[in-house]
Amino acid sequence: MELFITVTLLFAVVFAVLWWRALLGNWKMKREHAAQDMEELSYHERTRQRAEMLHRLVEGIEDGLFIISSRLTVLFVNRGAMKFFPPISTPVGRTLLECVRDHRIVEMVDGSVQSGQRQKQEFLVSSRGEGSGVEDRIFSVEAVPLNGDAPGGMEGGVLVILRDETEKHTLERIRKDFVANASHELRTPLSIINGYLENLVEGDISEPDETKRAFGIMRKHGDRLAQIVEDLLVISRMESGEPEAVRVEEFDFKACAQDVIHRLTPVITTKEAKVEVVLVDNCSPYIHGDRYYWDQILFNLVSNALKENLARGLQVTILLKQEGDISEIQVRDNGVGIPHADLPFVFKRFYRVARHHSKDIKGTGLGLSIVKRAVEAHHGTITVHSRPGIETLFTIRVPRAARG
Ligand code: ADP
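Structure tokens predicted for histidine kinase:
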């Protein structure tokens, strides 16, 4: 009997141990599966997040990106690329030519596919402009062959990167134009002065009247040289960002405008022009600012209007409007105007409108950039609107409260 009890107990213990182990094993397995599931889930989540991040990155890039198959079919295109070309629905799956509509670009990309070599070139392309218009832009196009481990379907294809270099080229052209313009502007008065000096030294000019006239001309051109150098100094002083450059205080704007008109009276009279100052609703003539700078601003704007317009009877209005916290100043003329295409550039340093009017009009292309910098030094903004042949309007808005 005792033996029976002992054996039964032994079986019970063995059974309990085995059952416990099985239970533990099952529990461990479940835990492992759960951990695996979690890992898989977070792997998918990580992959999804990475794909989302890449998508945003690619779509956020200003440059255009295409992935082109070895048969020159579009496999991928970002938003940046499509804004350059005529709109096309579902570009993926179409040929590159259908999207870019330029044989030269397609030939270059094909060259890269065939040779497996990276290629880069610049193209002048008629591209989609603002709104629905078409404008000429300069694109750099780079084709980068995709190597052997590119994802399926992309092997042998290329990544095409499009960059709009128009702005860079425009700035470069402006810089070159300036060097040519400034040298010309400085050389002309210098050679006139030198010419007269030589005549005086050689005794070719000896009569008192002739001598007086020669000195008069030399003085005029000397003044012009001084003006160009002054413009260059003013602009470099403003660009240096020196805080003491602007001294803001309340001053009589109307008196400042009238001083400018007074200084320009000889030109105004010769051109039979009319320049007037208007205070809207009889507002206060006082504004906050550095009078020295405002003198430059008004002088440049009014003298530009007079200089650019050869026809007689020009009407120029300098208008002041006080609106809440803002003083608004307008300078309007009814002359030749500025062509639409030139408007975005007129405030750029050294930019001069390609002569839609006489070649005799002198300038360095610095006047409006001085004006813009002076306005910005007053925490203000300046805009320009023009309807060629009808009017040109410069609008300046500056805070009424003093800000140094
Ligand atoms: P510039 O020294 O040539 O006058 P600005 O920077 O003052 O240089 O002006 C840039 C260009 O903008 C000028 O070359 C001129 O063609 C154009 N412009 C400026 N103001 C006027 C205006 N009121 N009417 C017509 N064209 C203007």
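The chain has a mean pLDDT of 86.
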